[in-house]
Amino acid sequence: MNIHEYQAKALLYEYRVPVPLGQVARTADEARAAAWALGGGPFLVKAQIHAGGRGKAGGVVLAETPEEVAEIAGKLLGKRLVTQQTGSQGLPVGAVLVERATEVARELYLSLLIDRTRARVLVVASAAGGMDIEQIARSQPEQILSFAIHPATGPMPYQGRELAFGLGLYGEQTGAFVALLERLYRLFVDKDASQIELNPLAVTAEGQLLALDAKLNFDDNALYAHPEIASLADPSQEDEKERRAREHGLSYVALDGEIGCMVNGAGLAMATMDLIKQCGGEPANFLDVGGGASAERVTEAFKILLADPKVKAILVNIFGGIVRCDLIAQGILAAVRQMQVKVPVVVRLEGTAAEVGREILERSGLAIIPAADLLEAARRAVAAARGEV
After folding, report:
1. Pairwise CA distance, residues 174 & 197, whole Å
2. Going by C-beta distance under 8 Å and a sequence separation of 6 or more, which residues neighbour residue 135?
3. pTM for the whole thing?
4. Total domain count for the chain?
5. Segment-wise mean pLDDT, segments of 10 residues, the chain, 389 residues
6. CA–CA separation, 222 vs 51, rounded Å?
7. What is the CA radius of gyration of the chain?
8. Of 101, 125, 150, which residue constitutes the final position of a domain?
9. Within this chain, do residues 109 and 179 fall inside the same structural domain, yes or no?
């Protein structure tokens, strides 16, 4: 689960991580009042959306006076901000964060994330903060510093000092950085975070460390234990189809293609998407209905797929292990009839009672395109999406 920058900074402040003075505002008048409360300018007005790249997209604007803050906020609030991470539709701006602008001497990058290969929390840092860290990692990998934290000890002071030296920090800054790292790790563990990213972590003109921007993500599977985190969710920042899928226990991620995919099992879903691309098509989504897919789940999955206007064909790829293919076939027929599906539907069934399931589909009289294997299914789905069937 993602949260907004102002929410992330409130959590950082709770754990004594230094952040700029700021207030959230949801109207231009509130933004003006926030600027007056913060004292003299200049100010930064920052659009609050669940995506990076806001500065390049005009979502972070410098203002000199409270009146200018109100004017900028009025232009940002209510619009959809399009960044390199949002896609062409953008995300709605429902709030802005008004902060005192900070005089910065240097910008660093610091993040904590989960390294699943080592089963450790990984600390990643770079002296090239405030920039596209992925690009830095590709073009200048020597600028990326990292170490893994042992869960029995937490971050050791010597590890923090070595990293601080690598970032060019010195004197009191080294001790401040070691303390900062320990507090971030405590927040990470306490709240079951999956990522904490400070980009940039600034060294101010006075030599202090300050988290100028913050991104926090949390493990969805642990939200039951953290209602205070779950309450920070903003449904306006979610894809409506993804939200509906989650409510019905479906794993769904919207993509930009034209072939809707309904598969049981994450690995099989990824293989299905790969084959669609290999055959010249583009998947419209990742959708895993789960190993225990029922007729009701299949029907709901069809509803979600058809809610995407880009979908020109649907590929159903089911391996019957826990669930029998004949039951899936009945669910497919019920969904096609109930939803009055107008786009071509290609179905590949394999596994338990697959022959019976295929017979049910063939006797239905509905325009369902059968496929004997996965490659044939992908080819037929691509052809159907192009209107060649």
Report:
1. 19
2. none
3. 0.79
4. 3
5. 96 97 96 94 95 91 96 96 85 96 95 95 91 80 93 96 96 96 98 96 95 95 95 87 79 91 90 95 91 72 88 90 82 85 90 87 86 92 88
6. 22
7. 25
8. 101
9. yes
